[in-house]
Design a protein that fits this description.
By secondary structure, the protein is an alpha/beta fold. The chain has one domain (36-142): Glutaredoxin (3-Layer(aba) Sandwich). Helix content is 37%, strand content 13%. The chain has helices at residues 2-24, 58-61, 77-81, 83-90, 106-116, 130-134; strands at residues 66-72, 95-102, 122-126.
Length: 152
């Protein structure tokens, strides 16, 4: 019995060390892989933001370049901070940047884009956020709440 008093802490430490070292080589928990990478773009039937930003089409998304579809909203704080990086990304050759504004009003989205700059080639409007849910697009910070509705 007295032998276990010495072996138990060493075994517990070895087990703890194993899991801690294992976590060093696993992906960061903040990195969530997209289920949409290298898959055909979802078919979204949505209007353009306004007369200044036409809606992108499926042909735009499959035009032989790297396509980035950024989901954003005027009320989203991280969207403001990423605006500079998106502007830099839009300048790269061979990269097309499209926007999908979700759960926002057109006037608020236009004011947001006029304020931070519009890096998008085209922007679509999803005022209810339902099309993003139907296409299984991730929401801001992984906090999309999608009511169950049959797919169209």
């Amino acid at each position: 019995m007295s032998r276990w008093i010495f072996v138990a802490p060493i075994a517990a430490f070895a087990l703890l060390a194993f899991f801690l070292f294992k976590s060093l080589w696993s992906p960061a928990p903040s990195l969530v892989p997209s289920a949409l990478l290298n898959k055909p773009a979802p078919r979204l039937v949505l209007p353009g933001l306004d007369a200044r930003s036409a809606a992108f089409t499926p042909a735009d998304l499959a035009a032989g370049h790297v396509t980035v579809l950024n989901v954003f909203a005027s009320w989203c704080a991280p969207c403001r901070t990423e605006a500079d990086q998106l502007a830099e990304l839009a300048q790269l050759p061979g990269v097309a940047l499209y926007g999908l504004t979700q759960k926002d009003k057109p006037a608020a989205t236009r004011a947001f884009l006029d304020e931070v700059g519009n890096p998008f080639a085209r922007v679509r409007l999803d005022p209810e956020g339902q099309a993003g849910c139907d296409a299984r697009l991730p929401g801001r910070g992984g906090q999309s709440l999608c009511p169950h509705r049959p797919r169209r």
